[in-house]
Amino acid sequence: MSIDGVIYANYRHGLERDSAFTPPARPSNFELERAYLNVRSKSEGGISTRVTVDVDGRRATGGQQTIRLKYAFVDWTPEGSPVTWRFGMQNTPIIGYLEDIWGYRMQGTVPIDRARYLTSSDIGLGAEGSWMANGLTAHAGVFNGEGYSNAPGDNRKDAALRVSMRLLPTNDTGPTGGLRVTGFASVGRATGGAVRDRYLALLTYKTKTLTLGAEYWITTDSTAADAETQGRITSLFATHRLEGSRVGLLARVDRWDPNADVAPAAFDAAASRQTRMVAGVSYQLAPNARVMLDADIVSAQGSAIPNAFQAANRSVYVHTEIKF
């Protein structure tokens, strides 16, 4: 059995005055974003387990942190098989994969997770495999669909599949390395019967020092009674670690349109297009510790953008990542 974990903490300085303060002032706080504690084990017969406790540093009602179970699953890899079967509360096929490519979870969640279209963990049955020395990888599963932080819903389920193929090799021979094309689909129905479909096309180039990526999402949602809403997310990102140095550079631009059929003149959180720009520099303090200075700026379509939105989405951070 082994125990490990990670802590994400930051210092945030807002660039806009928040009118909710008296007198209005720029937000300036030390924050604990997240802490994870993992317990892992392996036994004979290709059986392994993982349990992960998630501490959400964002204060819930009453001022307390939320502690929840994120992962609790068992893996079975038959002898000689390239496929691992997984049952329980487990990683869903795409979020962790995108985080591995981006490499800076410490800055924040990836766009599809940040927009709350998908969750990184859910209860279900999955299978993950790799062939041709990671030239082809796949991950599929059937899940409750409500995510690890919500109670299971009714009888409806979500089915998800990710397939990634390496088109050209690089010096990164891992499951995300090389020039790769990746497709992902998740189709299902939320509790009550609402549509909940997500589709991704992803092109990435990854070496041991350079990562380039472009992703395009199509989302479809509805309620049981209303018409469907089409959403779009596009993202371009790049990271570079200087050769022989502890310094890394990162930049990304994410555009989220929650309702592609509507362009409101005045700001509407449910329909206005938003563009997030992130740029930063990181430094590897030790093998298990990184620090990063970055700017995170969100602009929105439409007039009369409320102060609360501006104050919450225009900040400079010092992010830290501590592994143990």
Describe it:
With 324 residues, the protein is mainly beta. It is built from three helices and 16 strands. The protein has a 16-stranded antiparallel β-barrel. The radius of gyration is 20 Å and the shape is globular. The two termini are 15 Å apart.
Fill in the keyword field for this structure.
324 residues, mainly beta, globular
Indicate the mean pLDDT: 95
Look at the helices and sheets and give the structural class. mainly beta
Number of strands: 16
Q: Kindly state the percentage of residues in helix.
A: under 10%
The low-pLDDT segments are none
General form? globular
Break the fold down into its secondary structure elements and pairings.
Elements: E1 2-14, E2 28-43, E3 47-56, E4 66-76, E5 83-91, H1 95-102, H2 111-114, E6 121-131, E7 136-143, E8 158-168, E9 178-188, E10 196-206, E11 210-221, E12 229-241, E13 247-257, E14 274-286, E15 289-300, H3 307-312, E16 314-323
Antiparallel strand pairs: 1-2, 1-16, 2-3, 3-4, 4-5, 5-6, 6-7, 7-8, 8-9, 9-10, 10-11, 11-12, 12-13, 13-14, 14-15, 15-16
Tell me briefly what this model is.
The protein has 324 residues and is mainly beta. The chain is built from 3 helices and 16 strands.
